[in-house]
Amino acid sequence: MLKKSFFNRQQTAVTLLMKGGSVDEMIACARAAEFEGADGIAVELCDLPPEQRTAENFRRLMDAVHLPFMFILYRNDRWLKDNDEERQKYLLSAAENGAEVIDVMGDLFDPSPFELPRSPVAIEKQKRLIEEIHARGAKVVMSSHMSNDFRTAEQVLEHLQEQSSRGADILKIVTGVNNEEQLTEAIRTTMLLNRELKKPFIHLCNGSFSRLHRFIGPKLGVSIAFAVHDYQSPSLLYTQPTIRALKTVLQNLPWHIDDVQK
């Protein structure tokens, strides 16, 4: 059986977002997610001990299910923390051993407001890393998280266009939505991105008014939506839907903005 892909899809990829303290734990979670109908797996390596971040373990994890994998390693790494250079070796190994997508932080090599540096040195290093990932057979999602900050549609579009200029294949941003006006603007933002961007994008929101957007974003053009298997942390109740809940909503809402615009 051929594995699915994050690309060339007609529908949003509902993707399990998971961490784990061991590869066996991750395999069990991935298999449960596949059974529930997940279309992909996003692995955060931050809690996995460095001695388990091996090529053999990455292959074993990805061979456990027939789903595409995205690998993520941010500055919340329990061991390497803000050592941007050192963390990349694990992501490059994942790319080399079968990951379809690698997450490159928007402000990698230069922590910056709104997670997008303007330093020519940092930008060049990001471009070189993206080229290395591509050379190993994987694609790149560039991600910027500003979960407490509201941004207008035009600001988000400009931000993602800048990510695209650095060579990213998928463009991702997370912003804050905490009142009715911001929720309305978030919906307008997603529709603007769908109309203007030529690459797949991930527009997500956090905050007290974000939950609706998490469910309807895929119908407005979001290409990858993240979900969890269950609620192990109370904070997730306000952001990530479960795989089952998200799939149910999407399957029972027979409408997509691209069908209307054709």
Report on the architecture of this protein.
The chain is an alpha/beta fold and 262 residues long. The chain is built from nine helices and eight strands. It has helices spanning 23-35, 55-63, 84-96, 120-135, 153-165, 180-196, 211-216, 243-251, 257-261; strands at residues 13-18, 40-44, 69-72, 101-105, 139-146, 170-176, 201-206, 224-227. It has an eight-stranded parallel beta sheet. Helix 4 links the parallel strand 4 and strand 5 (139-146). The protein is globular and about 45 Å long. The relative contact order is 0.13. The model has no long low-confidence stretch (mean pLDDT 95).
Question: What form results from the Cα inertia axes?
Answer: globular
Q: Give the topology string: H per helix, E per strand.
A: EHEHEHEHEHEHEHEHH
Helix content: 25-40%
**Side-by-side strand order of the widest sheet:** 7-6-5-4-3-2-1-8
Largest sheet at a glance? 8 strands, parallel
Give the rounded overall mean pLDDT.
95
Based on DSSP secondary structure assignment, what is the total number of beta strands?
Answer: 8
